[in-house]
Amino acid sequence: MNLWRVFFPEQASTTAGGVDALYIFLVAVSLFFGTLIALLVVGFAIKFRRRSDDEAPKAIHGNLALEIIWTVIPLGIVLLTFLWSAQLFFTVHRVPKDAMQINVVGKRWMWKLQHMTGQREINELHVPVGMPVKLVLTSEDVIHSFFVPAFRIKKDAVPGRYNTIWFEATKPGRYRLFCAEYCGTQHSGMIGWVIAMEPTTFQAWLAGGAGGGSLVAAGEKLFGELACVTCHRGDSGARGPNLEGLFGNPVKLADGSTVVADEAYVRESITTPTAKIVAGYQPIMPTFQGLISEEGLMQLVAYIQTLKPAEAAGTAPAAQTAPGAR
Ligand code: CUA
């Protein structure tokens, strides 16, 4: 294997170039100062060596110019590094609004992936190029970490919570997918491929898969089966908050604080309903912890995302079922 490729994998996402530039900058700064210091240590050891047994060195009481220089230059470098990496961090973690969502569940020892249209994949992920893709990650057992070197993305899949990350592939190809968190004896085998395809090829692939119904449809069915609808209705007599138009908007809680209803909030409200009580409601909802699989939870979250207020209904689910539409 090409050793260069191990340290500098192919750049195949919109953020890869930026990550590499910062990385090369850090390596260059370290190399420059590491070399400079090593040379000075050797040089000074020779230049200022003791030449006879009774030689006493001259006393030095500081040098203001020198101290200012070696304070200001490193300060400038670390501040630049901070601003640069913070800006990169926000780019990598702020998901574009129109990103196509894919759910990822880590399990010893495989990656289970599901598209919003229902297609499931194991250890393989098909994505279109030139389109932002949002990954919502969780785990069924221990902490795993979703790592695609060519895209320069790595995010933990943690049991009991959702993490998100996004990428936009720039060229078609097959890219390695790793688990980057030691998760047991077969951790090293928890690998796979991300296959980036031209959008038209991807649409054909998506249409070819069996699917088995969209995530939203499965979530709606589950919502009925679990009788969520008995309490979470639009009318005022309902015992639970109305979920229409909830997703992505701020929610006032009983303790006076406000949270934004994202995937993690909806999930927590299902598994631990008492964690965040909505203002004006009683903590009467039973927990569904352990009663719904990770996939079921993702289906419910997908369904709740599409619930729009009555007047806006009808336009919403289309965006979820057609990932190419934007
Ligand atoms: Cu999963 Cu290591």
What percent of the residues sit in helical stretches (DSSP H or I)?
Answer: 25-40%
Rounded Rg: 27 Å
How much of the sequence is in beta strands? 15-25%
End-to-end CA span = 40 Å
Q: How does the helix and strand content classify structurally?
A: alpha+beta
Please count the beta strands (DSSP E, at least 2 residues each): 12
Count of helical segments?
8
Question: Spans of 5+ residues with little confidence (pLDDT < 50)?
Answer: 312-326
Shape verdict: elongated
Give the overall pLDDT as a whole number.
Answer: 85
Ligand inventory reads: dinuclear copper ion
Major pleated sheet: 5 strands, mixed
Neighbour order of strands in the largest sheet:
3-2-1-5-8
> What order do the SSEs take from the amino end to the carboxyl end, as H and E?
HHHEEEEEEEEEEHHEEHHH
Give a verbal description of the structure.
There is one protein chain. This protein is α+β, with helices and mostly antiparallel strands and 326 residues long. The protein contains 8 helices and 12 strands. Strands 3-2-1-5-8 form a 5-stranded mixed sheet, covered by helices on one side. Strand 2 (110-115) and strand 3 (120-122) form a beta hairpin. It is elongated. The two termini are 40 Å apart. Mean pLDDT is 85; it is low at 312-326. Bound molecules: dinuclear copper ion (CUA). Dinuclear copper ion binds at residues 106, 109, 144, 179, 181-183, 187, 190.
